[in-house]
């Protein structure tokens, strides 16, 4: 594993983060809020990790997908309620409602990453 600081991934992470915050603040319903945001969030997580780690693109992408699926399935079992976590910021970040469409959006986001990263090689 090669540790580095990638300016390109740093810029992408920043732009994706601004996009996600804009979606969360200004769009309350619809496709962009419920699907595009989930599609972009896995790309955001991937880019954030890639700021620090050079190479291992496929492994990082799959790791982000697994992490996203775990978070989504924790929503299915209402883990935040079970743990009595009432903090609104944590509830917004982790989500509270399980939806299979989120799993599809995460998968499509990771497939996009894999296609782009593997076309570079």
Automatic annotation (TrEMBL):
The chain crosses the membrane at residues 12-29, 36-53, 59-80, 92-116. It comes from the Bacteria. Keywords: Membrane, Transmembrane, Transmembrane helix. InterPro entries: DUF2809. The keyword Hydrolase does not apply. The keyword Transmembrane applies. This is DUF2809 domain-containing protein. It comes from Seonamhaeicola marinus.
């Amino acid at each position: 594993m090669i540790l580095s600081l990638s300016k390109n991934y740093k810029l992408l992470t920043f732009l994706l983060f601004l996009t996600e915050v804009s979606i969360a603040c200004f769009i309350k319903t619809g496709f962009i809020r419920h699907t595009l945001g989930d599609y972009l969030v896995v790309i955001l997580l991937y880019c954030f990790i890639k700021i620090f780690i050079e190479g291992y693109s496929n492994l990082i992408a799959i790791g982000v997908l697994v992490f996203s699926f775990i978070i989504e399935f924790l929503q299915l079992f209402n883990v935040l309620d079970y743990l009595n976590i009432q903090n609104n910021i944590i509830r917004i970040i982790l989500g509270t409602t399980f939806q299979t469409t989120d799993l599809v959006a995460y998968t499509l986001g990771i497939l996009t990453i894999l296609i782009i990263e593997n076309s570079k090689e």
